[in-house]
Design brief:
208 residues; alpha+beta; Aminopeptidase; 6 helices; 8 strands; globular; disordered C terminus; Acyl_CoA_acyltransferase; GNAT family N-acetyltransferase
């Protein structure tokens, strides 16, 4: 079934929620501060350079795609502060029943476990509430930080896709990782990815 929108997912101080109009200043500041950190991994258009969409355009697009169940784009907030994004899309139903996951985190707050926890929250939702069978993540082999997220969450490495996505001016190779719902030991609510991450990587203090 298509996901409910607007969608809010939480784990202690971490929240995934839709981008809001009042987030504009904080979100734009976050993007500017992380431009160099993110540019080697951001998808680009091989045909032409497109201007970055305005905040209002992003809001309209995420609202439309979220309500249609085609793409979930969620702001990741830690202690109420915008800290990155986690997304699922395109979301495919029927025979494929799958989604591609994307994520990025503020460089200043990287290494604190926010990215894997945010991805785990969303994957649990996609499996338990949306009923998807499979998620995948495609990562440039050079992106060590992103590779660590996929491996911490026990996604299977499925191999190299050569010249797969246009990134930073050229078609780049990507490593593909995947996880299916039947590979996850779940609780009574059908969730298990976040619980496994917490058991393996977080101590009594919540540090990761």
């Amino acid at each position: 079934m298509p996901p409910v929108w607007p969608l809010v997912l939480s784990d202690a101080e971490l929240t995934l929620r839709p981008l809001r109009r009042r987030d504009r200043r904080a979100f734009e500041t976050l993007l500017v501060r992380n431009r160099e950190w993110l540019s080697p991994w951001d998808a680009t258009d091989p045909e032409r350079r497109r201007p970055r969409p305005t905040h209002a355009e992003l809001l309209r697009w995420s609202e439309r795609e979220g309500r249609a169940g085609r793409h979930l784009s969620l702001l990741l907030c830690a202690d109420g502060r915008p800290t990155g994004q986690v997304s699922a899309g395109p979301i495919l139903y029927g025979a494929q029943s799958s989604a591609t996951i994307g994520y990025w985190i503020d460089h200043a707050r990287a290494g604190r476990g926010y990215a894997p926890r945010g991805v785990a929250l969303l994957v649990d939702h996609l499996f338990a509430e949306v009923g998807l069978h499979r998620v995948e993540i495609n990562i440039r082999p050079e992106n060590e930080a992103s590779l660590r997220v996929a491996r911490k969450l026990h996604l299977r490495e499925e191999g190299l896709r050569e010249r797969f996505i246009h990134v930073d001016g050229a078609f780049r190779d990507h490593l593909s990782f995947a996880l299916t719902a039947d590979e996850v030991e779940t609780d009574e609510r059908g969730r298990g990815v976040l619980a496994r991450y917490r058991r393996e990587h977080m101590g009594a203090t919540g540090a990761s």
